[in-house]
Specification:
Layout lengths: L7 E2 L15 E3 L2 E3 L15 E2 L10 E4 L42 H14 L5 E4 L8 E4 L15 H13 L9 E6 L16 E9 L6 E6 L3 H7 L15 E5 L8 E3 L2 E3 L1 E2 L5 E2 L2 E5 L4
Parallel strand pairs: 10-11
Antiparallel strand pairs: 1-4, 2-3, 5-8, 6-7, 8-16, 9-10, 9-16, 12-13, 14-15
Helix pairs in contact: 1-2
């Protein structure tokens, strides 16, 4: 198990020289820009705040202050009109545009921060040209649910894991709340590392935000009613604040999820009955 102490994950501060070989590359429907972005020759790694500490392999705690409807459109899914093309890696201009979509607004940049933290592992980072020509934008990985997306396509498995992570980190008020996450994925792990600190089994999240229309799903854990009263759980609010399709009763019901592995639910089902990759969240008492 990897632990990060002092409640902060701090990538090493580095100055990286970028040597660009100017070979024109093209693929159908997309021009890959081999030129370095303005000002990309050097950058400083920035510290990443991750709630009450990041624990890989066997439980993850992150802040979940993501508000899905905060300045970017999910009406037709992330893959449409947001500068994302899941056929390409995030580090390419085709995969994540620096000229259109999410990166052209502060709210969108915040969303991309969460998304890349979910997808890429600790120690990975992506640099993008700032749309206004300012200092390049640097996004750091944290969890590592879909490391292949850095340089390659994001398939349905990648989409579901990243979506579940984003949904788990959302809340009705857009305010940071410390959570512990479990999942049947080696980057997180199915057992909690701090059950005494995070005793409330809140909910399980699953879906696919990249589809048109996007899927937002959650089911209530054993302490779900208390969480609903606390308004941490995004799905208890209206579409205007979060946009969940529904919260389908209790996760423990056989019709809701496929089963359970240690402290995490497995294969919770969407509205069509299809099992999806799922992340379970635990919260503290008295939030």
């Amino acid at each position: 198990m990897t632990q990060v102490h002092d409640n902060v994950v701090t990538p090493s501060r580095t100055i990286r020289a970028v040597w660009a070989l100017l070979i024109p590359l093209s693929v159908p429907g997309c021009l890959l820009d081999s030129r370095p972005a303005p000002g990309l020759h050097a950058s400083d790694g920035a510290s990443l705040e991750t709630g009450n500490g990041l624990r890989l392999q066997n439980g993850l705690r992150l802040q979940n202050g993501l508000r899905l409807q905060n300045g970017h459109s999910l009406e037709h899914g992330l893959a449409k009109g947001n500068g994302l093309d899941i056929k390409y890696g995030l580090e390419s201009e085709c995969g994540l545009s620096s000229r259109s979509g999410l990166l052209t607004s502060e709210a969108g940049q915040e969303f991309v921060t969460y998304m890349i933290e979910c997808a890429l592992p600790l120690g990975s980072s992506i640099e993008k040209a700032h749309p206004l020509g300012e200092k390049p934008l640097v996004f750091h990985g944290a969890v590592g649910l879909a490391p292949e997306w850095q340089s390659g396509a994001c398939d349905s498995t990648c989409q579901e894991w990243v979506s579940a992570c984003l949904l788990a980190r959302s809340n009705a008020l857009g305010q940071p709340v410390e959570i512990e996450m479990t999942a049947s994925h080696p980057a997180i792990g199915s057992e909690r590392t701090a059950p005494d600190e995070y005793p409330l089994e809140e909910a399980a999240f699953h879906g696919n935000l990249f589809l048109d229309p996007p899927q937002f799903h959650a089911c209530l854990g054993r302490a779900g009613l208390l969480s609903a009263l606390q308004l941490r759980l995004c799905g208890t609010a209206s579409w205007a604040t979060c946009g969940f399709d529904d919260i389908v009763s209790a996760c423990e019901l056989p019709a809701t999820c496929s089963g359970r592995e240690n402290d995490t639910y497995l294969g919770c089902r969407n509205h069509r009955g299809a099992a999806q990759h799922t992340i379970t969240t635990y919260t503290q008492m008295g939030l």
